[in-house]
């Protein structure tokens, strides 16, 4: 194509080898892409700019040519050398005279005539970073400025994979501009500039006039790279990563576009961006001055949703041209909704406007008017194209962010007043935005491997934690950890057990900080535990002999897994074990999971093993046999077992990802679907919908209940089916009656569920993706979730009521005093000499302390022992060896009883309390009599005893007094003192009984309206009666 004589630009680069090139650019803009990278950040280069003359000499020395080159190749070589020599002294064109420009133009035209690459846009040589070496554009050369204010170098980055370009200046201003490229043919692209960056920091939206065209007229891989095109679009040119002996030449030309001026830029937008930039700078300096606060966390350790990803990290997601109208019948679309619709439309090979028209033709007007349904349609239509176990696009960071934006769009599809300014500038940041439970539960399970319908609400609560939703940082971290888990499984399969070709390794438990111990015959064997989708493998660490691996099959019937306490000699000291058994009389594996970093590792492994066991129970109960002939009558049913297994494996992977993020629940088993549904209300109906989803499919042949035959060459008119009792999925897939072996199919809940209307006004993309409606699994899971939460609330009220009432409080009080009770009983055994050797040892230790004058150290040593015990318990708890239930007070509930029995029990309890209080009051009244000389003789005797005791304590050293009291206490039950002690205690009891209680006067109740008639007589009678009772 002829070049424009008015405006030329030439670029040079050191081109990388084509062997590592990225995929070629399609010929037209209507092609669909499988790679989704919305950002095109410039490639870094350590190539410094040198003089043109030195570069030319270097190329002349280092570049060699094959002797088989034709005359055309030789002419190209000479022309390229002449062109470079012509532009060398022109200072990128700033010093060029009209004669110099004409000479360069003539040489460029001659070089264009020998271009060997006819379709340069499809060549891998175009991708890269280019440096400007010549141009006639005065706006780029900036000749009107002093030389010290001109850009030293100009660069341009081109990415044909993302159809993006970026122009950059160097010192002193470092301005940048980004643009979208739209292919017009194999040589020409349309250029639309979208954003400027002042100083490379402050982004400003480009005016709509900033458009142009770019035509590549020459490209080869021998010498330098030259871009030749008019700069009405003001492109600059970048430089690519160097490869010393590979050079390329490229010429481009472009037509004149609409001219625009710097005055077209909105000054208010510039001021807004400057203020925003200054605010971010201030925030950054504040963070720098607080080095003890981790990035992304608050002072209390919680994630800070506001400290997410900077605006510029998400900016490139917004750069798609808006084709969908903002106004809708129910309001204006939010920015998140526009971005989601436009981006997923492009990923579907259409524009947002075309996708909207298609959706309008498919659904009724009420469905179409809800913008949330359009967001679903664009997203689900793209997701329906993939049926892999884990969606491959999750590896793309831009796709992860787009899913987050889609969840925000689904939650808030319409713009509010606060979003108006952000929508107008198209520079909205998602800092502080949180995705709610409803949006997460709708979008996340639609992506393969991210979430399961039955447990997605539990996953949301685990990720959200104490926050009201999920932030972008938490979402990206979760996906990153999930991808790491899947990558680790692939490495396990090759490195650990290559012979296990029929089993998939899920996780391996062995490390110094996280050992696995197998308890067998009171012996602890550390080793490596491996979990696969069918069995457990344990390889014990042996000091002698070969290492042996033992296997426990998890696919059989009657398998059970439970949490247990382990320890030497069956002591049960450590609550960190899991027991796996296959029934009575069979071998039981007892495994201890020690975790020096936490206490949930045992619970996580319990959930892992439970999920695999429950998976195979589900396969046996709801799935057809592997050799069942009916599998050939339903298309795709032979893959049902694999689909069910993948569901369990993905659930375990998600639990591992949450474990690495430290966002586990108290009960991790709620995060794996099969184990969760096993004990959940309405869980059997969810199991049924999963079975229909996994094994259901279109019928492919004629069958009856008597047998299955004629599976080929059947026309629709010849098909005869017995379908009265078959189950149908939302997309028409059939689950045969013969496969309904579980007793749960005949339950009332199951019958009621399957009688409901299968679908409303919606679009069924497949059995897992339905727009404007819910799948069968979603419906059943929603009912299960509602019933489960109702049960939890009911149980919470029951638990709270358990501690109400006198009997329960008495039991709790006894439980709290249990350690003191045990200590008192043990001391009583020592005092009674029930075990003489222990009593002698205790007395020897006690008298040693007394007569060695160590009594002053007893209290400090007691505190030291108490502190040591507390720290030891803390360490064991951090290792997870005490269990999460350690420290909790456990009491038994009261036996079931009716209302009358409860009233009688309360009455009896009140009688016991009344008797106890009466006896206590009598004792206190007797002490009152002694202290206040109510009985002078007894008061005198007690006073003499107290004086004698005081004299002894003043004269005799305290250690001898303490030794005597200890001797007296431990010899009372011996033969030589037993009778004497009994007579002395009897004498004390008799004297105590003779002590009268102090008199008590009870005044009658005096009401405001009435008073007793004979008040004085009633008082005297009450005093007389009480005195007689005490004397008796």
TrEMBL record:
Subcellular localization(s) per the UniProt record: Plastid
Family to which this protein belongs: Belongs to the PAP/fibrillin family.
GO annotations of cellular component type: plastid
Entry keywords, A to Z: Membrane, Plastid, Transit peptide, Transmembrane, Transmembrane helix
Keyword Mitochondrion appears in the UniProt entry: no
Region of interest called Disordered, as start-end residue ranges on this chain: 1008-1032
Residues of the Plastid lipid-associated protein/fibrillin conserved domain: 79-223
Transmembrane annotation, as ranges: 854-873, 942-967
Identification of the protein by name: Plastid lipid-associated protein/fibrillin conserved domain-containing protein
């Amino acid at each position: 194509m002829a070049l424009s004589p008015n405006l030329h630009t030439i670029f040079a680069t050191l081109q990388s080898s084509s062997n590592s090139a990225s995929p070629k650019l399609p010929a037209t803009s209507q092609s669909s892409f499988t790679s989704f990278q919305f950002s095109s950040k410039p490639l870094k280069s350590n190539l410094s700019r040198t003089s043109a003359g030195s570069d030319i000499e270097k190329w002349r020395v280092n570049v060699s040519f094959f002797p088989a080159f034709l005359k055309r190749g030789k002419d190209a070589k000479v022309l390229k050398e002449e062109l470079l020599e012509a532009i060398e002294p022109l200072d990128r064109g700033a010093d060029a005279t009209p004669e110099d420009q004409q000479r360069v133009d003539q040489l460029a035209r001659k070089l264009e005539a020998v271009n060997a690459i006819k379709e340069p846009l499809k060549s891998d040589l175009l991708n890269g970073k280019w440096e400007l070496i010549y141009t006639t554009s005065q706006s780029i050369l900036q000749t009107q400025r002093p030389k010290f204010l001109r850009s030293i170098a100009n660069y341009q980055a081109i990415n044909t994979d993302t159809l993006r370009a970026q122009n950059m200046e160097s010192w002193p201003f470092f301005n940048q501009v980004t643009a979208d490229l739209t292919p017009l043919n194999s040589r020409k692209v349309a250029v639309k500039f979208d954003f400027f960056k002042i100083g490379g920091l402050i982004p400003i939206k480009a005016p709509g006039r900033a458009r142009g065209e770019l035509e590549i007229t020459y490209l080869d891989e021998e010498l330098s790279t030259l871009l030749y095109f008019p700069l009405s679009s003001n492109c600059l040119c970048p430089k690519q990563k160097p490869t010393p002996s590979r050079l390329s030449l490229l010429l481009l030309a472009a037509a004149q576009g609409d001219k625009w001026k710097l005055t077209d830029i909105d000054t208010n937008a510039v001021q807004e961006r400057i203020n925003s930039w200054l605010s971010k700078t201030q925030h950054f300096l504040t963070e720098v001055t607080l080095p003890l606060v981790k990035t992304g966390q608050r002072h209390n350790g919680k994630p800070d949703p506001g400290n997410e990803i900077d605006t510029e990290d998400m900016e490139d997601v917004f750069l798609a041209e808006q084709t969908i109208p903002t106004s809708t019948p129910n309001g204006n679309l939010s920015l998140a909704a526009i971005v989601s619709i436009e981006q997923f439309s492009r990923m579907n090979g259409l524009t947002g406007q075309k996708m909207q028209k298609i959706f309008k033709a498919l659904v009724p007007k009420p469905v179409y008017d809800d913008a949330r349904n359009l967001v679903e349609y664009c997203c689900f239509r793209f997701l329906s194209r993939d049926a892999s176990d884990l969606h491959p696009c999750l590896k793309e960071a831009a796709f992860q962010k787009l899913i987050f934006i889609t969840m925000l769009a689904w939650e808030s599809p319409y713009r509010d007043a606060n979003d108006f300014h952000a929508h107008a500038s198209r520079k909205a940041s998602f800092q502080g935005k949180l995705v709610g439970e409803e949006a997460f539960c709708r979008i996340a399970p639609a992506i393969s491997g991210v979430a399961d319908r039955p447990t997605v609400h539990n996953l949301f609560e685990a990720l959200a934690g104490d926050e009201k939703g999920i932030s972008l940082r938490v979402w990206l971290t979760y996906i990153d950890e999930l991808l790491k888990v899947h990558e680790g499984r692939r490495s396990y399969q090759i490195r650990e057990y290559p012979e296990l070709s029929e089993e998939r390794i899920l996780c391996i438990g062995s490390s110094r900080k996280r050992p696995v111990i197998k308890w067998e015959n009171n012996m602890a064997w550390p080793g490596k535990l491996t979990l696969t989708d069918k069995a457990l493998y344990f390889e014990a660490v042996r000091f002698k002999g070969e290492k042996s691996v033992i296997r426990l099959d998890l696919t059989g019937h009657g398998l059970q897994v439970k949490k247990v306490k382990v320890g030497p000699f069956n002591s049960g000291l450590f609550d960190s074990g899991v027991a796996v058994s296959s029934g009575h009389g069979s071998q039981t594996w007892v495994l201890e999971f020690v975790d020096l970093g936490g206490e949930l590792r045992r619970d996580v492994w319990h959930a892992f093993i439970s999920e695999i066991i429950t998976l195979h129970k589900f396969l046996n109960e709801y799935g057809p046999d592997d050799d069942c002939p009916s599998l050939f009558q339903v298309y795709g049913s032979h893959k049902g077992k694999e689909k069910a297994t993948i569901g369990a494996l993905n659930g375990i992977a998600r639990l591992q990802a949450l474990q690495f993020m430290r966002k586990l629940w108290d009960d991790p088993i709620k995060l794996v679907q099969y184990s969760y549904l096993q004990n959940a209300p309405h869980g059997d109906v969810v199991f049924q919908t999963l079975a229909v989803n996994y094994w259901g499919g279109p019928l492919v042949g004629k069958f009856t209940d008597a047998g299955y035959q004629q599976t080929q060459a059947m026309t629709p008119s010849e098909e005869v089916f017995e379908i009265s009792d078959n189950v149908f999925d939302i997309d028409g897939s059939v689950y045969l009656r013969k496969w309904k072996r579980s007793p749960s199919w005949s339950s009332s809940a199951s019958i009621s569920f399957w009688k409901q209307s299968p679908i409303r006004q919606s679009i069924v993309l497949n059995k897992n993706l339905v727009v404007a409606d819910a799948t069968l699994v979603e419906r059943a899971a929603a009912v299960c979730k509602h019933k489960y939460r109702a049960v939890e609330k009911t149980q919470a009220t029951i638990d709270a009521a358990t501690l109400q009432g006198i009997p329960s409080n008495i039991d709790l009080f006894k439980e709290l005093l249990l350690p003191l009770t045990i200590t008192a009983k043990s001391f009583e055994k020592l005092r009674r000499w029930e075990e003489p050797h222990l009593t002698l040892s205790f007395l020897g230790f006690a008298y040693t302390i007394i007569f060695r004058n160590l009594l002053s150290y007893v209290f400090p040593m007691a505190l030291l022992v108490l502190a040591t015990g507390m720290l030891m318990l803390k360490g064991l708890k951090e290792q997870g060896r005490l269990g999460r239930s350690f420290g909790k007070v456990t009491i038994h509930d009261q036996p079931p009883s009716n209302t009358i029995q409860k009233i009688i029990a309360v009455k009896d309890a009140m009688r016991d309390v009344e008797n106890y209080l009466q006896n206590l009051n009598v004792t206190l009244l007797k002490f009152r009599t002694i202290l206040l000389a109510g009985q002078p003789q007894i008061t005198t005797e007690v006073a003499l005893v107290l004086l004698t005791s005081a004299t002894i304590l003043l004269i005799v050293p305290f250690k001898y007094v303490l030794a005597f009291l200890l001797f007296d206490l431990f010899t009372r039950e011996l033969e030589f003192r037993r009778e004497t002690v009994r007579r002395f205690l009897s004498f004390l009891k008799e004297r105590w009984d003779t002590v009268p209680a102090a008199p008590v006067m009870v005044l009658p109740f005096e009401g405001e309206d009435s008073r007793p008639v004979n008040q004085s007589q009633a008082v005297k009678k009450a005093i007389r009666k009480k005195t007689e009772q005490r004397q008796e």
